[in-house]
What does this fold into?
Amino acid sequence: MAFEFSPELAKICGIHVGDGYLRNDGKRAELDISGNTEEKEYYDLHVKKLFKNALDIDIICRFFQPRNTYGFVVRNKKIIEFMHTLGFPYGNKSTIVKIPNWISESTDKEIITRFLRGLFDTDGCVHFWKRNSGKYGKFKKNHHYYPIIKFGTVSKELYNQVKKILEKLEFGKIGQYIYKPKNINENIRYVLTLYGPNKIDKFFKLIGSKNPVKLSRVQLWNKLGYCPANTTLKQRLEMLKNPV
It folds into this structure.
């Protein structure tokens, strides 16, 4: 079984970096990917098709009750070994995961943007600020109107690689900070941010999203000029149906 190094595979790599776990302990060989239960539609309608097209495998998605997630497990040894040859470690990958070289060193814009889409869809976030103080009008003080995209990781190498890709894609100034937890047992977290309407517009035109949980937030912001905080996917979809 030979696999093509395609934009679809690049996106699978992004999804794995975000939500995946690769195991091969001599007893079990499996690729386990799952996310928030609200992402059921994303897995059922998009990720299943992606794995079929890129890796020629039919996956069966389900709820994992003990951890309250939705996703799937692949136990095809050739796929497990292939993902490992790409540079993904077996076991806990959080602090050492990185972008495979064939993606990070690619000059093909579609390859690197599809990887970022997979990473954003699983482990990125988009949210909206309101202004609680300062010389702002009532609308900005009362509505979550200012958009921010975030990529956070405990892998310093992944942080540097994503930063380099965003710079290559000419996103301009990129917010970056390092969170050092008070608990010594917790890992340092590295965060990249894209602030403001112009960068968010560019991100969704160039990279995009297939995850309704995240896409619905941006669609609602585009429609209303803000996105209410603490809403569910179902609530946002209902608001999108209603006339302004």
About this structure: The chain is about 45% helix and 20% strand.
